Amino acid sequence: MTLSVDVSGEAVPLCSVRVGNTASKGIAFEWNPALSDMFAASDNERTLSVAKIDMQNPSKYSLLGEKKLEANINEISWSPKGKQLVAGDANGKIFQLKPEIELVRATNAPQNGLAVTSLSWLATTEWLVAYSNPERTSGGTFMLNIKKDKPPSWTPVDLAGQFSLGETRRLLVDWNIVVVVLPGTGQLLGVCKPPNANAWSTVPLASLPQPSPASFVIGIAVDLSRQTSVTLGDGSARRLPALVALNSDGSLRSFQLSPPSKEYPDCNVSLVAVDPNRIQRGLRPAVLATTQNVPSLAPASAAVPQQSATPIAGLFAKMGEQKAPTAAFPLGSTSGGLFAGAKATTPSPLSSGTTTISTSIFSTQPSGTASGSALGASQTTPKSSLTQPSSNLLSGTSFIFFLFSFLLE
β-strands 164-165, 153-157: how paired? Predict the structure, then answer.
């Protein structure tokens, strides 16, 4: 760490790790989800590297593995337990590797002329992968399943070829969900595997409000470190993950993400107090002399539950419902090529039940209603409605993720 949010200063790198040669440029980077001192990175000279930082002396590091592969690595994803990683390249090939860059298996794309554009390791033998043609004018998303001694299988997923993954490994492991946004449309989806389910399914979560007609969502991230508890509709208080959406105008809007039921575990991380006296690099001398008595952060247990300005229980009372087709993975083979757009007719194991799409949560936003916060230069955010689609799954067990906006603190 070079600085703390409690101490003003100039960020200075503690450690610089060169991937490839001095002229190469980085392409992909991914921290190990289980081992916080390890990361993988790739450059535009076909090099893939895995490095381990010395946490006792962060200026030191060691390369666990480095190798030139067949093509540039566009995407990197670690297994949820951090023991292996997969790398997807510009030729559509996916390499499953050990941290020392020892090959476990390599899987070609389902057809020639494709590049990997998104990749997420969901479970032991399952990956969410998106391919596109070299021009990126067409693409498709698939659930890739690779079981021992069996050929790989691709199940089409009803997602655009270009999308932004907002998952974190904790969210994926604890809740079995990958949060996905379709850039431009602002449609927020969950690729999830509810309890007792045998397959992954897509579930519509919400339509993120657009700041203005000329601005649109281009990416999302999930923050698990929010400390303030929120009182939910059933009266319980929980610390919720925050979803942050980046818009094309540079503004940020943030939302809180709640699980569908109290049976889901808490998904958050606790802050670790930092002694400002230990932060030497990155601090201006004048600042360092005045920060000796900066109090440490209060423990997470001291957080006071905060009632949302728009009670969650009230959101359900106002929601009208209309029937819509179930959004789930189509099964079976498609016709007319990989991206022909043909729909499979075999129903998904999770497609039983009726999908309902509610009307907007905020039909109007009067003063005092919680709303998304935009951070941009002189950015005025018009009032927008946030919809809350839901899907009835597993014989009436509703798998719904609620989003409501909050002010950035």
Answer: unpaired
Measured distance CA(295)–CA(292) in Å, rounded: 9
Helices (H) and strands (E) in the chain, counts: 3, 27
Task: Please give the distance of CA 182 from its chain centroid, rounded to a whole number.
Answer: 12
**pLDDT > 70: what percent of the chain?**
62
Q: How many CA atoms lie within 13 A of 153 on its CB side?
A: 11
For residue 271, how far is the Cα from the chain centroid? 20
Question: Which of the four pLDDT bands, split at 50, 70 and 90, describes residue 314?
Answer: very low
- Polymer length of the chain: 409
Query: Could you tell me the residue ranges of all domains in the chain?
Result: 17-162, 163-309+402-409
CATH number of this structure's domain 17-162: 2.130.10.10
Q: 388: buried, middle or exposed (CB in 10 Å: 19+, 13-18, 0-12)?
A: buried
Q: In the prediction, which pLDDT does 263 show? A: 81
pLDDT at 386 over 60: no
pLDDT tens digit string along 255-270? 988 888 888 888 888 8
Task: Compute the distance between CA of residue 105 and CA of residue 95 in angstroms, rounded to an integer.
Answer: 6
Mean residue pLDDT of the chain comes to: 69
Distances (CA, A) of 157 to 339, 344, 350, 374, 377: 11, 10, 13, 32, 38
CB 173 within 8 Å of CB 266: no
